[in-house]
Amino acid sequence: MRGGAARGYLRQVGSLWRDLLFRSIVCATLVNVALVFAIYAPDPTTNHSADRHSERDRIRPPIASEKTPEERTADYTCWLTAETFVLAISTVGLWVVTWRGARGQARDMKRSLNIAESTAERQLRAYLVIEPDIFIDQESGPGASFEARPVLVNAGQTPAYDVIANSRMRVLPFPIGPEFTFPLDIPSDPSIRVLGPDQRTGLICNLGYIATPEDLRSIKSRGPVRLIAYGVVTYRDVFGKTHTTRYGFFFQWGSKGIPIWFSTNLHNQAT
After folding, report:
1. Which of 50, 55, 127, 226 would give a disulfide with 174, using CB separation of 3.0 to 4.6 Å?
2. How far is CA 81 from CA 24, 76, 86, 192, 241, in A?
3. CA–CA dist 6, 13 (Å, integer)
4. What is the mean pLDDT of residues 62-79?
5. Against a cut of 0.70, is the pTM above it?
6. Of 192, 229, 223, 189, nearest to 208 (Cα)?
7. Region 93-122: what's the mean pLDDT?
8. Residue 229: its pLDDT value, please?
9. DSSP class of residue 239?
10. How far apart (Å, rounded) are the C-alpha atoms in residues 141 and 145?
11. pLDDT digits 0-9 by tens, 162-201
């Protein structure tokens, strides 16, 4: 706010300086015209005859202080030189003020264009978010293991390119400490896809083994360990910039034995 007010004040000062210099140039030009007219204007006494000049010279004695035409021309030339110098200085000053004003306007325009471009990118780019969806309980059938299937959604207005998702499920001490780095097994040949605006695709977070009875009791009774599903999604937007979405969930069983999704206090960020 202060910066905008300062720039507005400087623009007003620059405008006043330009107006003052313009007026100075106009005045200097008018003075120069007057001096030129005074130098080259015909002498009205030249309309008298030579006899009347001779008679006047005989009657009126010569005045010692009266300047000759050559002296008058020299005086006018000095004044004209001074006015030309003033005019030159005013012109240079006007050029400097105009140049600085143009530079300021160019900077403001560039800043406005950068802000508009950044705003357009933020409004139009792809935004990949994670939403809870399906949960499969280990006790749902023989040989089943815990599995969470969140949904990846493009909430932006343009497609997301080179979408790569990696996820994992683990039984971990709870609450999760800051020393845990949420490691992932990154495949050497990952699946890559394109996700259009409002398009959805499912993700799979599987525990990969049958939880022990002790872990199972702790998981479902809010004990010292919990079931954690987490992952990372990378993608490229239509402007060529790469973004990352990190997510993490833990599960808590309600009174009716239905698991409820909760976001972890860590590993939930997006760029």
Report:
1. 226
2. 16, 9, 9, 79, 63
3. 11
4. 68
5. no
6. 229
7. 76
8. 97
9. T
10. 9
11. 999 999 999 999 999 999 999 998 888 899 999 999 999 9
Angle at 188 between CA 184 and CA 189, to 5 degrees: 115
Given a cut of 90, whether residue 84 has pLDDT beyond it is no
For residue 197, what is the DSSP state? T
> How many Cα atoms are found within 13 Å in the side-chain-facing hemisphere of 56?
8
| pLDDT tens digits, 142-168 | 778 999 999 999 999 999 999 999 999
Distance CA 159, CA 218 (A): 42
> Which residue is it, tokens 């499920």?
169
CA separation for the pair 1, 6 (Å, rounded): 9
Q: Which residue has the tokens 């809010």?
A: 222
In 10 A of CB 11, how many CB atoms? 14
Q: What angle do CA 32, 35, 36 make, to 5 degrees?
A: 85
32 has pLDDT over 70: no
Tell me the longest C-alpha to C-alpha distance in the chain: 145
pLDDT of 55 reads 53
Q: How far apart are CA 69 and CA 43, in angstroms?
A: 10
**3-state SS track over 133-157:** EEEECHHHCCCCCCEEEEEEEECCC
How many other β-carbons are positioned within 10 Å of the β-carbon of residue 196?
12
**Close Cβ partners of 252 (under 8 Å, ≥ 6 residues apart):** 222, 226, 259, 260, 262
Phi, psi of 253 (to 5 degrees): -85, 135
